[in-house]
Amino acid sequence: xxxxxxxxxxxxxxxxxxxxxxxxxxxxxxxxxxxxxxxxxxxxxxxxxxxxxxxxxxxxxxxxxxxxxxxxxxxxxxxxxxxxxxxxxxxxxxxxxxxxxxxxxxxxxxxxxxxxxxxxxxxxxxxxxxxxxxxxxxxxxxxxxxxxxxxxxxxxxxxxxxxxxxxxxxxxxxxxxxxxxxxxxxxxxxxxxxxxxxxxxxxxxxxxxxxxxxxxxxxxxxxxxxxxxxxxxxxxxxxxxxxxxxxxx
Length: 249
Ligand SMILES: [Ca+2]
Ligand SMILES: [Ca+2]
What we know:
The protein is mainly β. The protein has one helix at about 1-25; strands spanning about 40, 50, 60-65, 80, 100, 105-110, 115, 125-130, 135-145, 150-160, 175-180, 190-195, 200-210, 220-225, 235-245.
């Protein structure tokens, strides 16, 4: 019985010793070495124990080889809508949308928000005019791009309302685009005119910003423009405007 207990004690002691050695190796990265202790190394491999003796005069050494996973955790990309009041349904004045037109020298706040049509809610934005000819106007909003931008996509619903009858000759035209705070176009604008398909219905469109990362931390303009000729006015209503910006925090 005493002999059996002694053997059991030796086995348990050996197991505990090996466990302590493994935990010590895992808690201190790199090699652990002393004159009388085995050298331990982390390598990308399965765990195993190697024994090495160069010659009879060299003390027996042990190398405990542990698995080591090399990698990094990428920050999660987060996406958010940078446009405020994109549904135009906030009570007037419809800030932060602003407008410009060739009928006034002032930048004004809400004349381009209309209750005549809506994709959702009760209001939408409107460029062009249901009554004015030789008219130019622009509906725009300044948006702040976050740091670490990965992509940016402008999306919106538009409703083309034109009294022009030609479907082959362009008389009244509209654009949806993205510009710098200095008014420089940074994406090829989506163009809509009196010849476009989808008259009198809500149509969803989108526009990707090329080289979006270059605009990290900058202010941009979301812009809708309208220009009509001398007769037969046209309007473009826009609603549910979003600029979905994805960025690494
Ligand atoms: Ca709306
Ligand atoms: Ca016209």
